[in-house]
Design a protein that fits this description.
Distance between the termini: 77 Å
Number of strands: 33
Shape: globular
Number of domains: 4
Radius of gyration: 28 Å
Number of helices: 9
Strand order of the largest sheet: 1-22-21-15-14-25-26
Helix content: 10-25%
Mean pLDDT: 91
Largest sheet: 7 strands, mixed
């Protein structure tokens, strides 16, 4: 579209990012990969992950063309960076209603284009619908771009498009990928560079598990990712992105888009808000000196399924992480000097070593070797498991998951997925998984909620994860599972059949202490439609240490629990099982008595919550 020359005063007043106060707290004084990790933590917190099908409507908020010949009052025309002609009239234009799947020519409709190809992350959520790098583009150009990376093309041009963007052989010097690239026009090279760098920060912990290739083979080497969490891209590719970022500075379009995405997705692209952070992170000069090895590797705690390793740091100042090897095979990487290795087998011996690596990805020699033998059994659960399943009306869908493993759990290898039925082929398949992320301490629980839910007793602010993807759009006829590296950990319903748990809430019995890959209805209590009482609240992890002013007795209890101390001012008493299910409630319970009857409770362990304090007791 032909660019409008809006008044200079208007433009200068608009170019300001609406960053919420305190959003980037904790970044002062940081640089390099330490800054990148801090930004990752900030922009990954409490995102709202929409369904891929929601994007067309959202584009009408985030991607309207108000910057060329449509102006600030445009309410329908989308800006397509693949076809936009900044200095003249566009050959074609789209509204959000012009979504199509395939196209044999330019100008027939648009696609939802993943700036980082969705094959990189197997089309899983939250990546699949992340507005910061999933943009509306012409369907034909999107198809021809295929999975080719962005890049600088040479004289061997395969396609030239209406705005002069092109697909050509790569001219990136010193870059292993030497086949085709898609080169956008100069007007949008910085926009695309900042999208890719956002991706590298937002999904830092997952980058090593994404699909990338180190084989120098033009048929498969399409990804510029290098398999590292910190640097993210091949060095030559990073150089190109930094060049694009510098030559095409942040525009008003990007600022407005960033603000609009924050409104609906609740996170920001930090390189639009603070462009100087690009160089602060990626402009580094690694040395050629191999780092010193870490020392004093030891195991501080071991269970039947895990061990906790600790070590003294490398003395080299440029170390950015440690690789942990189990029986000679790399099993995990960490930036700290400790790591939990889980999913081990009981009564089994393992050997571990640790190597430090630096900014140039030079790796140290091995630490000392520590040999660990796991216990035959312990009292912990062997893995995470689901304790609440909400399948209410409409979008009222939620899962609550608990960690009782005895150790902190890294969630980055876990996902929730739902099985679908294809009636035309009479076959079952999994929908797009929702990948969990971050870490969960021992004896804590968290909720995954559909952000479109309208539950009366739970809101978006209460949930740790919000996704409208397939994982939280299940119905009671479907099989739902918690998976670890694609292996089933815990399940609701049965595979390859139509289940019958529609409009029902299932709460795990407090006697269940282990996940079960085969659904067993006897492990669950069933409740009515949209029931979500105590979802995400008081569980084993939430026990508040009781003060000395009130004591309960006897413990174990048979028919009654008695209280001593200043109990007359207690306003509320509740008894909950360890899944958080409310078993009993009474207001002003000790106004005229000193006991609470527990004779109707089944034998087990419970929590007596008196106002803001909780007391654990056993019912015999």
């Amino acid at each position: 579209m032909k660019k409008l020359l809006f008044p200079i005063i208007l433009i200068s007043s608009l170019i300001s990012a609406q960053v919420p106060a305190g959003y980037y707290d904790g970044t002062t004084g940081l640089s390099g990969y330490a800054l990148k990790t801090k930004l990752h933590d900030i922009i990954s917190e409490k995102n709202v992950n929409w369904n891929y099908g929601d994007l067309p409507n959202l584009y009408s908020q985030t991607d309207l063309d108000k910057y060329y010949d449509h102006g600030p009052d445009n309410t329908t025309i989308l800006l397509d960076v693949y076809s936009e002609i900044p200095t003249g009239a566009d050959v074609y234009e789209y509204t959000s209603a012009n979504l199509i799947s395939t196209s044999g020519a330019e100008g027939l409709g648009y696609n939802r284009e993943h700036a980082v190809p969705q094959s990189t992350f197997n089309s899983d959520y939250p990546m699949y619908s992340d507005l910061h790098f999933v943009i509306p583009t012409d369907a034909r150009i999107n198809q021809l771009r295929n999975n080719y990376p962005y890049g600088v093309g040479n004289s061997t041009v395969h396609y030239t498009f209406t705005n002069s963007s092109k697909i050509a052989n790569s001219a990136i010097p010193n870059y292993v990928y030497n086949n085709r690239v898609y080169e956008p026009i100069n007007e949008f090279k910085g926009d695309i560079a900042r999208m890719l760098l956002y991706f590298a920060v937002r999904y830092e912990d997952k980058l090593p598990s994404f699909n990338y290739s180190t084989n120098i083979n033009p048929a498969i080497d399409r990804s510029p990712l290098d398999g590292t969490a910190e640097r993210a891209f091949d060095p030559a590719y990073i150089s190109m992105l930094l060049q694009w970022h510098a030559q095409d500075p942040v525009s008003q379009r990007e600022i407005d888009r960033n603000n609009a995405i924050y409104t609906t997705q609740k996170n920001r692209n930090p390189f639009i808000d603070n462009p100087q952070w690009v160089n602060a992170i990626w402009v580094q000069t690694p040395d050629s000196i191999v780092p010193q090895a870490p020392l004093n590797l030891n195991s501080t705690q071991t269970g039947a399924y895990y061990t906790n390793l600790v070590w003294s740091p490398s003395t080299s100042s440029d170390v950015i992480g440690y690789n942990i090897y189990q029986n000679g095979t790399l099993v995990t990487t960490t930036k700290s000097t400790s790591a939990v290795i889980d999913h081990l087998l009981p009564s089994t011996s393992y050997s571990f070593t640790v190597k430090a690596y630096d900014q140039g990805y030079l790796q140290s020699a091995d630490s000392n070797t520590v040999t660990v033998t796991t216990l035959a059994t312990d009292t912990n659960s062997k893995d995470l498991f689901v304790i609440k399943y909400i399948e209410g009306t409409g979008n009222n869908k939620a899962l609550e998951i608990i960690n009782r493993t005895g150790h902190e759990v890294d969630l980055n290898n876990y996902s929730v997925r739902v099985q679908y039925y294809n009636s035309s082929s009479n076959s079952y398949y999994y929908g797009n998984s929702f990948e969990l992320e971050g870490k969960i301490p021992n004896n804590e629980n968290f909720v995954v909620l559909n952000p479109k839910a309208a539950l009366s007793c739970y809101t978006n602010n209460d949930a740790r994860f919000l996704t409208a993807g397939d994982a939280m759009t299940f119905s009671g006829t479907q099989y739902v599972e918690l998976a670890y590296k694609s292996a089933t950990v815990d399940a609701i319903g049965s595979k390859f059949v139509s289940n019958s748990y529609g409009d029902v809430s299932l709460y795990r019995k407090n006697t269940v202490t282990q996940p079960n890959a085969t659904f067993t209805i006897g492990e669950w209590d069933s409740y009515g439609v949209n029931y979500c009482q105590n979802l995400g609240t008081l569980s084993a992890s939430d026990v508040i240490l009781a003060g000395n002013d009130i004591k309960i007795y006897p413990n174990p209890a048979y028919d009654n629990i008695f209280v001593s101390g200043k109990a007359e001012n207690v306003k509320s008493a509740q008894i909950l099982d360890f899944s958080g299910k409310l078993m009993y409630s009474e207001q002003n319970p000790f106004k005229n008595k000193k006991n609470i009857s527990v004779q109707d409770l089944s034998a087990g362990v419970y929590l007596l919550k008196l106002d803001d304090k909780a007391y654990q007791f056993i019912k015999k």
